[in-house]
Amino acid sequence: MFRLKLKAGALQLTTFIIVVIALLLTAFILLVHTHRQFQIQSNFIIETTKQSSHGIDYALQNPIQLNDTTIINLYDEDYKNLKVHRSFWGFFEKVVSTATIKNKRFQKIALVGSKQPKNNRTALYVQDNNKPLVLVGNTKIEGVAYLPKQGVKPGYISGQSYYGSRLIFGSIRSSSALPKLSSETISQIKSLEYSASKLPQNQFLSIEEGQRYKQFIFKSHAGCFLK
């Protein structure tokens, strides 16, 4: 049997190389793990954002109880949650969609209104009170106009006549009574009127030229009243 005698310096060098290799492997494993966790968290954020948009779309296509929170079934894992809340922001209808995936939470808010087609857009609706619509000055009505049976005619007010080449730039249809508002909208208008009547005068905003007023939409109140 041959015996090989190694110097102490060679053993130290071997140990140092082993330690360096171990550190490099550990760093590589931590890097891979961190990158994987970062990718998972990024996917959660992206999915949470998409789910909140899905909540807005759901509220636009389905009836949602006013001033109530609706939980949307995602048919997915239990750690995912999507809630939609519908209410009024002043006179405007507001929808808040909140998506949660584990500790990631994203909220999207939208003011909801009606959309008219590009063609044959309704421009004016005048209730039929047995009186014609009178136009003066540079008035221009472009689109579908619902007018009384007496129709429309040019007029003369304060020294001004009608200067347009046509009375209505679009089609004319017969009108009757004004279309009825929804019961929810009527209730909201009455609520705003009641709230406004109880406010002191110093709570109203006096609009002046060059002034800017802001209202944070997430902190919803009964409404903003302008004097």
Protein model, in words:
A hairpin with an 8-residue loop joins strand 1 (68-71) and strand 2 (80-89). A 4-stranded antiparallel beta sheet has the order 1-2-3-4. The radius of gyration is 34 Å and the shape is elongated. Helices cover 31% and strands 24% of the residues. It has 227 residues and is α/β, with parallel strands linked by helices. Among the domains are: 17-112; 122-174, no CATH class.
State the helix count.
Answer: 2
The main pleated sheet reads as: 4 strands, antiparallel
For the largest sheet, list the strands in their spatial order: 1-2-3-4
Rg for CA atoms: 34 Å
> Which spans have pLDDT < 50 for at least 5 consecutive residues?
220-227
- Strand residue content: 15-25%
The helix/strand series, from N terminus to C terminus, equals HEEEEEEEEEEEH
In whole angstroms, how far apart are the ends?
107 Å
Q: Helix/strand/pairing class, anyone?
A: alpha/beta
Arithmetic mean of pLDDT = 83
Number of strands: 11
Task: Write down the overall geometry.
Answer: elongated
Chain oligomer state: single chain
Helix % is 25-40%
Pick out its properties:
single chain; 227 residues; alpha/beta; 4-stranded antiparallel beta sheet; 3-stranded parallel beta sheet; 2 helices; disordered C terminus
